[in-house]
């Protein structure tokens, strides 16, 4: 384990000051670590991610990325992370290649490095044939692949991955997971929000279970089993039990 | 079908309720600047039409223009994407719905036609001078409009795109023949005209009874009509209904759109490609550039040339600038770039496109009216552009950051 790359410290936040969605949420992620963010729909996963990305400002608490607050230097803060959104968000006016070129320019990549990396990723995700296509003509899975390739073009300290498997074919899922593992080995941190609990159980070093804007469980799978007293239970069993118990008060 | 009649009424009112909101803002004068520009251009246009030589082929030009305008008239149906699922199964009960669409479209296009004739009035004056009456022009054009709409309704049953294009071309040619007669370019045979038009309309109606509508095409036409309406509004203000259509511009990819890889020009890269590819923005830009450049062939006093150039630049810049709030993206908030660089990229794009515009106008002036006049036009134009884009527009777009 290295130093903490991301430190979310006791944040309370949301969309309206009087109605916070998150309540004193804390997350820390080390280098060489993949953390799974799990929870029911509306638990606050996407809101947490929006705060980390800097799209929302917390009402209370602080977020440090590589020891730096966003307001200290927004551009430098942004350069330290890469994001794969749940819903593909693309530019209608640009082709696949132009999306990659634009991202590479925005992140100040060297042109030859960009071209080499882009070609490798296009090959890995079987998208070479579509480089001159507009994403609006893509299938859902292809759009998601564009988001993934875009995110892996840069080499940031933190990858934020929100529901990345939606629409991906099995080979695409495998490529994505291998890529995340590789980045982790190289020292990156990964925060992955997902509903695919079997994958989270298999790939994540630690898990954070959010429920109604609060962290209700955190740690390795062994820690979660210990905290719930459910020895040998799968992550899915723990998840279902905890969220059911919480619902019943 | 009472429900389908209600549906027509509901959709028609729904559209006009929304449209009136925008039209009210325009008429009330909150967006007076583009209106003033248009009035300015109208005066210049009147001035220029007075300079036309007697050999100018006005009848041909007016006939081509009106024939094209009539041929592209298709009924507005107010159909929506979901109708493909919900209305298609009951299409055989939609005769009244489509008839209403034709009647409504005739009414609306008649107003448009009158507006066009009013716009052409300085030119029409040459024809009116003899008789002094507009009706001999107007009535045949209205008959032709109704004929086009009736046929266009039946054409929307054709399944092949080539066939649709073919029908439109046939209508265009027939329109042209009739218009040439109206403008006395060729002799008038109104009995023959009416007989031919009637026979074609009858054959088309009889053939149409046997076929179903091409719903994909119906929806496509409706989308285009809606987009076209909001494109006019777009000249005055930004609307959320504005739909955009993309052109790949492969032919430009290796020339104009092949921008060098320069990280400091990230936003310029984005905006230039986006503006050139967006038909609703780029086509008006090209049209305005070409028309204003063509106007420079006229030998007019220098102050008139300068006035035309500045007005044309303002109009073009204004319509380009309107895309600023729309061409925003979630990703811009995540890029490790200062927010100000987005503003710089956009202004640079405007400056480049408008520089091309003023340069084209200056080259024509230089060629037709001499080096001194052309050079001066370019210098004044560039000076004006630098000030307007980097000070005037910068001030406006800062509000949106």
TrEMBL record, chain A:
Residues 6-237 form the ABC transporter domain. InterPro entries: AAA+_ATPase (IPR003593), ABC_transporter-like_ATP-bd (IPR003439), ABC_transporter-like_CS (IPR017871), ABC_Transporter_VariousFunc (IPR051782), P-loop_NTPase (IPR027417). Pfam families: ABC_tran. One of its GO terms (molecular function) is ATP binding. SUPFAM superfamilies: P-loop containing nucleoside triphosphate hydrolases. Keywords: ATP-binding, Nucleotide-binding, Transport. PANTHER family: ABC TRANSPORTER ATP-BINDING PROTEIN ALBC-RELATED, ABC-TYPE TRANSPORTER ATP-BINDING PROTEIN ECSA. This is ABC-2 type transport system ATP-binding protein. It comes from Ammoniphilus resinae. The lineage of its organism: Bacteria, Bacillati, Bacillota, Bacilli, Bacillales.
TrEMBL record, chain B:
The chain crosses the membrane at residues 21-48, 54-71, 101-120, 126-150, 162-183, 304-324, 345-369, 375-393. Pfam families: EcsB (PF05975). Coiled coil: none annotated. Keywords: Membrane, Transmembrane, Transmembrane helix. InterPro entries: EcsB_ABC. This is ABC-2 type transport system permease protein. It comes from Ammoniphilus resinae. The lineage of its organism: Bacteria, Bacillati, Bacillota, Bacilli, Bacillales.
């Amino acid at each position: 384990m290295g130093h903490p790359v991301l430190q979310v410290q006791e944040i309370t936040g949301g969309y309206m000051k009087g109605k916070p969605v998150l309540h004193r949420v804390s997350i820390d992620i080390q280098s060489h670590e993949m953390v799974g963010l799990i929870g029911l729909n509306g638990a606050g996963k996407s809101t947490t991610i929006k705060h980390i990305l800097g799209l929302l400002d917390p009402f209370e608490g602080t977020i440090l990325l590589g020891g730096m607050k966003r307001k200290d230097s927004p551009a430098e803060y942004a350069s330290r992370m890469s994001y794969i959104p749940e819903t593909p968000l693309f530019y209608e006016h640009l082709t696949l290649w132009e999306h990659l070129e634009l991202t590479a320019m925005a992140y100040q990549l060297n042109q030859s490095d960009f071209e080499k990396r882009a070609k490798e990723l296009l090959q890995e995700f079987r998208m070479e044939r579509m480089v001159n296509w507009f994403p609006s003509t893509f299938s859902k899975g292809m759009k998601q692949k564009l988001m993934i390739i875009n995110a892996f073009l840069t080499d940031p300290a933190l990858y934020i991955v929100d529901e990345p498997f939606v629409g991906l074919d099995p080979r695409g899922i495998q490529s994505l997971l291998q890529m995340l593992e590789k980045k982790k080995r190289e020292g990156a941190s990964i925060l992955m929000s997902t509903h695919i609990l079997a994958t989270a159980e298999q790939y994540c070093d630690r898990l954070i279970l959010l429920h109604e804007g609060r962290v209700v469980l955190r740690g390795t799978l062994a820690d979660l089993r210990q905290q719930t007293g459910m020895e040998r239970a799968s992550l899915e069993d723990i998840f279902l039990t905890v969220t059911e118990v919480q619902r019943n008060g | 079908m009472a429900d389908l009649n209600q549906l027509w009424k509901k959709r028609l009112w729904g559209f006009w309720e929304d449209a009136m909101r925008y039209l009210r803002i325009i008429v009330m004068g909150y967006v007076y600047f583009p209106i003033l520009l248009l009035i300015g251009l109208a005066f210049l246009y009147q001035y220029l039409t007075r300079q036309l030589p007697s050999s100018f082929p006005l009848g041909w030009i007016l006939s081509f223009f009106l024939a094209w305008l009539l041929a592209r008239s298709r009924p507005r149906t107010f159909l929506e994407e979901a109708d493909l699922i919900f209305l298609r199964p009951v299409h055989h009960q939609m005769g009244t719905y489509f008839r209403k669409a034709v009647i409504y479209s005739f009414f609306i296009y008649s107003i448009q036609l009158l507006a066009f004739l009013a716009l052409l009035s300085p030119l029409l004056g040459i024809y009116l001078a003899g008789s002094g009456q507009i009706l001999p022009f107007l009535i045949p054009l209205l008959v032709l409009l109704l004929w086009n709409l009736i046929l266009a309704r039946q054409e929307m049953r054709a399944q092949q795109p080539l066939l649709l294009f073919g029908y439109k071309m046939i209508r265009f040619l027939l329109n042209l023949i009739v218009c040439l007669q109206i403008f006395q370019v060729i002799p008038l045979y109104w009995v023959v005209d009416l007989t031919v038009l009637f026979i074609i309309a009858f054959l088309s109606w009889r053939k149409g009874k046997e076929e179903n509508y091409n719903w994909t095409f119906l929806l496509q036409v409706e989308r285009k009509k809606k987009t076209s309406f909001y494109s006019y509004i777009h000249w005055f203000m930004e609307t959320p209904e504005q739909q955009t259509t993309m052109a790949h511009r492969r032919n430009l990819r290796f020339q104009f759109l092949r921008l060098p890889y320069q990280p400091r020009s990230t936003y310029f890269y984005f905006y230039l490609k986006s503006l050139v590819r967006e038909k609703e923005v780029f086509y008006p830009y090209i049209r305005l550039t070409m028309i204003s450049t063509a106007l420079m062939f006229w030998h007019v006093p220098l102050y008139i040339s300068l006035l035309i150039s500045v007005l044309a630049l303002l109009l073009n810049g204004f319509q380009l600038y309107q895309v600023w709030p729309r061409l925003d993206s979630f990703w811009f908030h995540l890029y490790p770039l200062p927010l100000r660089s987005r503003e710089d990229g956009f202004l640079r794009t405007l400056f480049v496109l408008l520089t091309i515009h003023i340069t084209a106008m200056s080259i024509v002036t230089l060629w037709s009216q001499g080096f001194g006049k052309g050079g001066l036009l370019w210098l004044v134009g560039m000076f004006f552009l630098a000030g307007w884009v980097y000070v005037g527009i910068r001030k406006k777009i800062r509000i949106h950051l």
